[in-house]
UniProtKB/TrEMBL annotation:
Name the UniProt record assigns to this protein: D-lactate dehydrogenase
InterPro entries associated with the record: D-isomer_2_OHA_DH_cat_dom (IPR006139), D-isomer_DH_CS (IPR029753), D-isomer_DH_CS1 (IPR029752), D-isomer_DH_NAD-bd (IPR006140), D-LDH-like (IPR058205), NAD(P)-bd_dom_sf (IPR036291)
Organism: Actinacidiphila rubida
Domain of life: Bacteria
Molecular functions (GO terms): D-lactate dehydrogenase (NAD+) activity; NAD binding
Stretch forming the signal peptide: none
Family per record: Belongs to the D-isomer specific 2-hydroxyacid dehydrogenase family.
Phylogenetic classification of the source organism: Bacteria, Bacillati, Actinomycetota, Actinomycetes, Kitasatosporales
Keywords: NAD, Oxidoreductase
Record domain D-isomer specific 2-hydroxyacid dehydrogenase NAD-binding: where: 111-296
């Protein structure tokens, strides 16, 4: 089978090509699949997309007209896909059910540590041979409180890291994870977590019930020196409310690997363009905000697992199998 893979990073390409060979031919493009790039997919029965693809109803209809029957996405998230319309069109849609939770959890903790110890500012200063310590005062994590919002595999991995630092553990989720309670986590209401935590890390999926889960009210409840970390989905945080909170001089630091309007921005070189997203541009001006470009998952371990799952999705489609990775058609 010939497969079109879009949104492929340069480091990812050899892993994809090696994994699909010799049974399948894969054409890898750095371009993301959108309405503008849809003609590139014509003639490909299987299309392998990234989370930044725009797979709304018109794009799905265009894919079907071009002969596509399978969409396999290289991510666990799939809020960019109109699944109901895909089902009506008779498409098969699959995702990666899971990959290394340590990649994302370790990166989330890296953001928290970098913010706490002012690493970016310190490195920038020393490059200019400025070796003063003014403004670089951090805090011990030991003995302080971490709030983990979402205690699935990634949240559990982050909980283990925080426990290693000797932190008090607070958690919030729709169900209690025994693995976290065994580590000493206390499950509390989200409002209490926001009030008491010194570090808050988000690890829940994006759904209507979690959209802007962290808005103006919960930001107002947080400690003035809290570290807020989001490596999950951008729209979990109301970005406009976040800017307003930061302008008040509140929050010790914010680490964002995701942003609610990142499509069309993250993964692209925008260095020679005017940034037209006023909210993102404003966020980037705060010295206590660290923004990275959706790279938390980006370790060789995680990418190899994502690629392997993607190959299995193609094989399952050809064999007519429905697995835990199949989103459409739904299992009976």
């Amino acid at each position: 089978m010939e497969i079109l893979a879009t949104g492929v990073q340069r480091d990812e390409r050899p892993l994809l090509e090696r994994a699909f060979a010799p049974r399948h031919d894969v054409r890898c493009l750095e371009t993301f699949l959108t309405a503008d790039t849809l003609p590139l997919a014509a003639g490909y029965e299987a299309v392998c997309t990234s989370v930044n693809a725009v797979l709304d109803a018109p794009v799905l209809e265009g894919l079907v007209r071009g002969g596509t029957r399978l969409i396999t996405q290289r991510s666990t998230g799939y809020n960019n896909i109109d699944l109901d319309h895909a089902e009506r069109l008779g498409l098969t849609v699959a995702r990666v059910a899971e990959y290394s939770p340590y990649a994302v959890a370790e990166f989330a903790w890296t953001l928290a540590s970098a913010l706490n110890r002012r690493i970016v500012r310190a490195a920038s200063r020393t490059r200019d041979f400025d070796f003063r310590l003014d403004g670089l005062l951090g805090r011990d994590f030991h003995g302080r409180t971490v709030g983990v919002i979402g205690t699935g595999r990634i949240g559990t991995a982050l909980t283990a890291v925080a426990r290693g630092y000797g932190m008090r553990l607070l958690g919030w989720d729709i169900s209690v994870n025994p693995e976290c309670t065994e580590m000493g986590m206390e499950y509390v209401e989200l409002d209490r977590l926001c009030r008491e935590a010194d570090v808050i890390s988000l690890h829940v999926p994006l759904a209507p019930s979690t959209h802007h889960l962290i808005g103006a009210r919960r930001l107002a409840d947080m400690k003035d020196d809290v570290l807020l970390i989001n490596t999950s989905r951008g729209a979990l945080i109301d970005s406009t409310a976040l800017v307003d909170t930061l302008r008040e001089g509140r929050l010790g630091g914010v680490g964002l690997d995701v942003y609610e309007e990142e499509a069309g921005v993250f993964f692209y070189d925008k260095s020679l363009e005017v940034m037209t997203d006023d909210v993102l541009a404003r966020l980037m001006t705060f010295t206590n905000v660290l923004v990275t470009s959706h790279q938390a998952y980006y370790t060789v371990d995680a990418v190899e697992q994502i690629v392997a799952a993607t190959v299995r999705n193609v094989d399952d489609y050809l064999a007519g199998r429905i697995t835990e990775c199949t989103l459409v058609p739904k299992s009976p």
